[in-house]
Amino acid sequence: MTAPEDRARSAFAAEFGAAPDTVWTAPGRVNLIGEHTDYNGGYVLPFALPQRTAVAAGRLDRREWTVWSEVGRAAPVTFAEADLEPGRVTGWAGYLAAVVWALRDTGVDVPGARLTVASDVPVGSGLSSSAALECATLGALLDLAGSELPLDDWPALAQRAENVYVGMPCGIMDQAASSLCRADHALFLDCRSLETEQVPFTIADEGLAVLVVDTRAPHRHTDGEYAARRQTCEAAAARLGVDLLREVADLGQALAALAGDEVAVRRVRHVVTENQRVLDTMTLLRAGRTSEIGPLLTASHASLRDDYEVTVPELDVAVDAALAAGALGARMTGGGFGGCVIALVRTESADAVATAVSSAFAEHGFDVPAAFVAAPGPGAARA
């Protein structure tokens, strides 16, 4: 298959009979560790995938936006200024409308435009296809507007677009990864201060690989489960007298204060211990001891399964099968309720681990999973 930027250009010419003025791409991401910590002001450690979403864009002389996507080959969607109110444009086109709205809300004079979308990022797999779409759209629209927005400001703007316009209460990790990541690095992000550190992650040089297994279990946050967990965390923080669970200094004391509310106890325990696992992972990576992070990944999955309750059978079977086949560590990645698993493996065993997961899925009657080795790639860029 041709690159998404080439497909976006070709689609623009086919749909609109002209060449686009600009094309931008942005990647999906996997999160190495640090799940459901971002909206609690904690730590995350994602890296960008080689799979990318491309947006080709051309100016219009009227305040109107027509968007087309190769996903589903749906008919073009057109929206005007009157539609730039949160919730007015829904479905996949809502993410593009959200970026137009967010840019205009910050004072950027976004011109009318025609846009075509092509993507290699699997949709609904927990690999941040929405953030990739938002960041690629953001770059393209800034080009058309002749406006420069510091790259460090992109994550918050794209997050606001998704939070307010789309109505998805996500944290800032996905948008940060899609815009700020560098090739051969993981991005350590403090979600409270928004400070970042680019951490070398050239695992191939160490004979290691990150195997991504797409379980193809439907990945849904819109059923309210994600929002419910965020609300529980916010309520628990209020009861503990802190703004964010990141600020909990004594886990034992916090859990004692929440005694009797077992759901809150489990959620808080996950967030606090997961933050520590991110810091412990960083210590090992900085010391060049990548092969030792496996148990931290596996402990993260156990916490997400038992305390945060966001795994599903496909995720648990994939993790168990990967570990049984020799993975050094494995965990679900993303928001959960379906989606993907990552496994840290010796390079030479990647195929065997993928085969073991497929065999386990067949035994359980699950859909056939897809697997690939992920090399850390760069963030959003003009194509």
Automatic annotation (TrEMBL):
SUPFAM superfamilies linked: GHMP Kinase, C-terminal domain (SSF55060), Ribosomal protein S5 domain 2-like (SSF54211)
Domain GHMP kinase C-terminal: 283-362
GHMP kinase N-terminal domain boundaries: 95-180
Keywords of the record: ATP-binding, Carbohydrate metabolism, Galactose metabolism, Kinase, Nucleotide-binding, Transferase
UniProt enzyme class: transferase
Domain Galactokinase N-terminal stretches: 11-58
Enzyme Commission number, as recorded: 2.7.1.6
Keyword ATP-binding carried by entry: yes
InterPro entries the UniProt entry points to: Galactokinase, Galactokinase_CS, GalKase_N, GHMP_kinase_C_dom, GHMP_kinase_C_sf, GHMP_kinase_N_dom, GHMP_knse_ATP-bd_CS, Mevalonate/galactokinase
NCBIfam families per record: gal_kin
Family as reported in the entry's similarity comment: Belongs to the GHMP kinase family. GalK subfamily.
Cross-referenced PANTHER family: GALACTOKINASE-RELATED, MEVALONATE KINASE/GALACTOKINASE
Protein name as catalogued: Galactokinase
Annotated source species: Luedemannella helvata
Underlying gene: galK
